[in-house]
Amino acid sequence: MPRSLERMETNEKDREPVGRKEPCPCGSGKRYKNCCFKKGIMYERDETGTVSRLVHPDEDLEKILEEQRKKFVEKFGREPGPKDEIFFDMPPAEHLEAILSEAMKQAGVDPAAVYAFEKTGFILSTENKHLMSDAQLAEWDAAVDEYHRLHGDPGKD
Fold it and tell me: Which helix (H) or strand (E) element contains residue 44?
């Protein structure tokens, strides 16, 4: 989730889609058309050459963003600008990750999944797996495999 509105303010005509024959921006080493494009994950390049993943907010995300905008106006007395943080009232990311990790453990989530979250920052489920790039999935799988190697889980190598 972007922490600032800068990306959201970029003029669309200053961006172009990543070509399907180009290397996939996810870092998998595959061509874009054979990787993230197949999953519906879209990337674009701005005028400086910076590649960004496109996120089309659903209704729930739009409500969250509007609520954050209202909180910003209430706190600062003005509309947020392009460099202002969207989630200005959040604790540092490291603190949130620790809270999530502990909540996952208390909820009985598979320890390998908790370990993979701590290593990658991803929360992988059957519902969101299709949204992950091949490189992200490989990173997750490597973390799960590492957990099993470190903890000597039989048959999990």
Answer: strand 43-45
CA dist., res. 79 & res. 57, Å (int)? 20
**SS3 at position 14:** helix
- The H-assigned helical ranges of 16-151 are 59-76, 93-106, 111-120, 134-151
DSSP code, position 27: S
Q: What is the CA radius of gyration of the chain?
A: 19
Dihedral sign (CA 119, 122, 126, 131): negative
User: pLDDT per residue over 81-138, tens digit each?
Assistant: 988 988 888 888 889 899 999 999 999 999 999 999 999 999 998 888 888 888 999 9
**Cα–Cα distance between 143 and 110 in angstroms, integer?**
13
Work out the number of other CB atoms within 10 angstroms of the CB of residue 152. Answer: 8
pTM, to two decimals: 0.63
